[in-house]
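I am still getting used to backbone structure tokens and would like to learn alongside you. To get us started, please write out a protein record for me. Once you have written the record down, we can walk along the chain together.
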Amino acid sequence: MGRSWNRIKRNVKKNGSHLVKFMLPSKYLRYYPPVYIVRNPIEERVSHTLKKGFQIAVVSFYFPGLEGIIKRLGNRKYISCREVVKAQLRKVIQDTFTDEQVVCLHEQYSDGISLLIKVDANDYRQTELNDKLIEVKNRIEAPTYKHLDDEHLTIQFGYVFLDSSHYSLPECMLKAHLQAMAMAEKQSKLHYQHLLFQMNHIISTKSITLLAQPIMDVSRGGIKAWELLTRGPKESVMENPLQLFSVAKQTGKLFLLELVILEKAFQLIYQCKMKEAVFINFTPTTLNEVELIEKVLFLLKKYPAIIPKNIAFEVTEQDSTDGLRNFERNIQALRELGFQIAVDDTGAGYASLHTISRIMPDIIKIDRSVIQDIDKSQVKEKMLQGLLLIASETGSLVVAEGIERQEEEQILFKHKVDMAQGYFYAKPKLLQPIS
């Protein structure tokens, strides 16, 4: 026994950690040996936001003339003028965006400032983010906004969407920041030209995928129509539609991209022998293009089996329709060719109602913000009734978007809504060609 005890003591002396581990309760063993983790609050907030199902827009602000101002004013008096400018920008951002929208504001990678904005992908409208960023720009550049001995300060911005599916979160944040800075500066031959090359490649090779989500007949059941939804090249950052359309817009390639989408839609309709109506999203920017009708006529000639009356051009609320000279004329020309016109996101804001009054659409799509939990809200049900009244006055059919529960569908049935779509029925999917 004495010999055994001496052997145990020698073992403990040689490797005392075994004794410590032996004495620890089992619930603490996963912390042994101790691991020291350096917390990164920004990454934690970003990770938390992504896990809740939101997406994040990374915005970079760039001051092209700031270095020149510093040189003219001299470093002695204005040694911290860069900090003064950044403080002013922070103040304007805080006045423009809500605390709920701002994930964080930091200057981790450069002299510029990066802003991380929380975005609900289902309710996202590019015009909202653009308008707010333009408001920030206008306030910073306003003559009445005094700073730096009345030197005129200019500011540029660019933005992309975070995509952590292919990189670690720190790598993804750095990559997104560099891309956003390239958009803001547009002098960066490396990053901006790379994004431009990517977009040109997508357009030239037509490397997009169209998913189809069914639109159901509420009263009779069954599929009444399909909405086609765009995805970029698979397993790339451009697969995310928010990223794809944001980069296309900022590189001036939005019209060309949407023409590719239209042609791919014609191909899908032909290959799948689709008899139901098909909804295809278009931005007001594209619907305003002078060459639009010429391009549509070319595609109709190329795909003679396509029946225009079965296709609805769905006007998205990505941009305002105000000031677009050719918008209504092109809408009328599309109608004369036999296409239907739909207005998206109705009820989400003033813009869609304004568009309805201008173009009197054939179809009105009610935004999911009105439909979500409508069975629990008398106010939302009254809003639905009001929108149905507008549709009746304009002679429009109604599609309710974002149905996720049977109780929501029952309210639509009660009020005789024509059509509905949402995850309650089916998620977007690939359609297989019929041989």
